Amino acid sequence: MQFGVMDHLDLSGGGSIQTHYENRLRLLELYDRAGFYGYHVTEHHCTPLGGGASPSVFLSAAAQRTKRLRLGTLVYALPAHHPIRLTEEIGMIDQMSGGRVDLGFGRGSVPMELAYFGVNPDDAREIHEETLECVLQGLSSGRIDFEGKHIRINDAPIFQRPAQLPHPPLWYGVHSMESAERAAIRGYNIVCNEPGEASGGYIDMFRSVWSRRNGDAPPPMLGLARFVYVGRTDEEANAVVRRAYLSFVKSFRWLHTKHGVVPRLSGREATFDELVETERGVAGSPETVARVLRDHMARAGANYCVMRLAFGDMTYDEMETSVNLFTREVMPALIDA
Questions:
Q1: Distance between CA 161 and CA 263 in Å, rounded?
Q2: Which of 2, 104, 106, 300 has minimal Cβ neighbours within 10 Å of its Cβ?
Q3: Which CATH architecture has domain 2-227+303-313?
Q4: Residue-level pLDDT at 109
Q5: Residue 243 belongs to what H/E stretch?
Q6: Going along 2-111, which residue ranges are E strands?
């Protein structure tokens, strides 16, 4: 089992934005020293959830503060990017990090964000597919020559080739049987964010399709995402997360509230206790967290534990305490699971 972090960098904690980013970079140094596999930043716009609005900018800083930790996106929202600019940015980050970039792409989960960019959300899937084809072409061949319904690029040269050729590893967020099948056919690493039984079904589908196409070859990373907080006791941990999650979910729902719509995929749970009931989160002592995560990972058949370790209005001391307890006491109990 390997361990990673997913981070919205949500701006719900108060204090200066400069301090907010510096504290996250300090956490990345902890993840790096602890031997975590990867760090995956999300992309959101025009909302306090979007502290990682420019994943490329933050990952460029992260590349300079870490040595082994892989640095990725879950996801670049492709309809918000021009293919040439994004391809060049990815090549630059991969070179500056010494070939440590992992790439997650998506069409954007919040239609209102795309609308601010002048993108019709109904076109998001088509734009995503065209942009993805352009970016992978540019990374792999050093040129983009494409004519589609939404994008037309005439033989544009790309000089910022990535260190990892033909391109960095690819990731996909799986939310259905169809998306699990599609990811397996394309050979992507995946992350599931659903309760145990649903995620287990998606991962089973992925493994089945993968084995039909690849025989006995081992599957890629099969991630299960969970909110995680470790305290010295269950009571201490729950006191922190019950407060911090309320702050996070306010940021998560900010645009939805503004536009009078209901979140579709995540952010449905109003409290951390509801999150625990739906198996999307766990908080407690090291023993409690290890026991619950071991159960969730085993039932889902996942091999990569992807955690939201910092969220809401947690202080740096609270985040550091949780990370240190996880790496000292939880990781050793799970690493061979």
A1: 38
A2: 2
A3: Alpha-Beta Barrel (3.20)
A4: 85
A5: helix 234-252
A6: 2-7, 38-41, 70-73, 76-77, 101-106
